[in-house]
Amino acid sequence: MEFDTVIIGAGAAGMMCAAHSGGRTLVIDHAKAAGEKIRISGGGRCNFTNLDAKPENFISKNPHFCKSALKRYTQWDFIDLMAKHQIAWHEKTLGQLFCDGSAKQVVAMLLQEMQSVGAEIWLKTSVASVVRNGDTFELTLKREDTQINVSSKNLVLASGGKSIPKMGATGLAYELATQFGLELTDVRPALVPLTFSDQRYAPISGVSAPVRASANGTEFEEACLFTHRGLSGPAILQASSYWCEGDVVCLDLDPDGTLFEILRTARQEQGKRDITTILTQQYPARLVQHLSDEMQIKGRIGDQSDAALEQLCSHLRNWEQRPTGSEGYRTAEVTLGGIDTDGLSSKTMEAKAVKGLYVIGEAMGVTGWLGGYNFQWAWSSGWAAGTAI
Ligand code: FDA
């Protein structure tokens, strides 16, 4: 069977691309349903973009690569698409937009958009092989035990990264990219909880506190969640994208810098109280207990000199953690790195050296922060390739 374009992966990027590509388009996916990650994202409400999305929110070997697509298909364009389909949304926090109803509405919207341009979708279909014959890609597909040969002028790699293999993530895009001579950057799990070899935070598992978490010079002010296995919560997930094995993550437990004055005031007004009692007015009691054991915090607040209070605040502002690892692809929201952007056009996402081969979405080495940025990249890169085809 002949198509103009075959898109491998009916995820966010693949569907967006199919909705905009001209000619006869086929989208294939080995999953039972399209857009499974969209469906489960944002607790079932899909954090589909971010009001503040800008190139600085993306990690890439070439930080300029994402600029063109993000500028040409913006968060406002996607918001317009949601409006066209009458899908209600709200801003939760930090510019993060979620559906009022269900993430399934976003999947249905993309399927409708694809249908309106006549794109076909084959689910439960896997790729046995791809070869290039002149200007044509020849694919051998397996669809429910039947082998089907398909050819196309354009081939779009939209099968995502390695995160959450249980949801069908595979390294197929990387394998095909390598087959066609594209380079890969190092890949690792990102937006992922960090772990320790001991269970040091098991006693305070479930406790959450606002922090400024930094790794390798990039910091995020959000909540940190202590877990049985280590550290999680948005601040840690964000920092994990900048953290490499062996590195320190620094937690500032006084992100707004007010603790010293609070302690000095308490010294005057509540001098007879234990310093840990004062700290429980600022932090969860279980966290204070943990910190007081670790940092030897004790004594009456009234007996503390300015220097002692300064030292305590300094400890709490620079609480260094050296995780031993991460929860890995099993729970990582994204894969950091991927198909090297150096080999791709930032305007069209087409491989510079292989005419008709495109890479979009998470498969390539462009990784967004937590907060709707990864879907925005899927929409923008999918649109850029689709409109170029
Ligand atoms: P995506 O992974 O969506 O799609 C790839 C498709 O290819 C899948 O349908 C898969 O089945 C298919 N495929 C893979 N291998 C194949 C093979 N060998 N053969 C055939 N098909 C194959 N981002 C965000 O911005 N806001 C959010 O709220 C969330 N929430 C979130 C929650 C969870 C639990 C996860 C795991 C991830 C998120 N993300 C997110 C990240 C976001 O889901 C992700 O970055 C995008 O889905 C990437 O879109 P792609 O289309 O590139 O890949």
Automatic annotation (TrEMBL):
<dbReference type="InterPro" id="IPR004792">
    <property type="entry name" value="BaiN-like"/>
</dbReference>
<dbReference type="InterPro" id="IPR036188">
    <property type="entry name" value="FAD/NAD-bd_sf"/>
</dbReference>
<feature type="domain" description="RsdA/BaiN/AoA(So)-like Rossmann fold-like">
    <location>
        <begin position="4"/>
        <end position="387"/>
    </location>
</feature>
<dbReference type="InterPro" id="IPR057661">
    <property type="entry name" value="RsdA/BaiN/AoA(So)_Rossmann"/>
</dbReference>
<feature type="domain" description="RsdA/BaiN/AoA(So)-like insert">
    <location>
        <begin position="188"/>
        <end position="334"/>
    </location>
</feature>
<dbReference type="Pfam" id="PF22780">
    <property type="entry name" value="HI0933_like_1st"/>
</dbReference>
<dbReference type="InterPro" id="IPR023166">
    <property type="entry name" value="BaiN-like_dom_sf"/>
</dbReference>
<keyword id="KW-0274">FAD</keyword>
<keyword id="KW-0285">Flavoprotein</keyword>
<dbReference type="InterPro" id="IPR055178">
    <property type="entry name" value="RsdA/BaiN/AoA(So)-like_dom"/>
</dbReference>
<protein>
    <recommendedName>
        <fullName>Ferredoxin--NADP reductase</fullName>
    </recommendedName>
</protein>
<dbReference type="Pfam" id="PF03486">
    <property type="entry name" value="HI0933_like"/>
</dbReference>
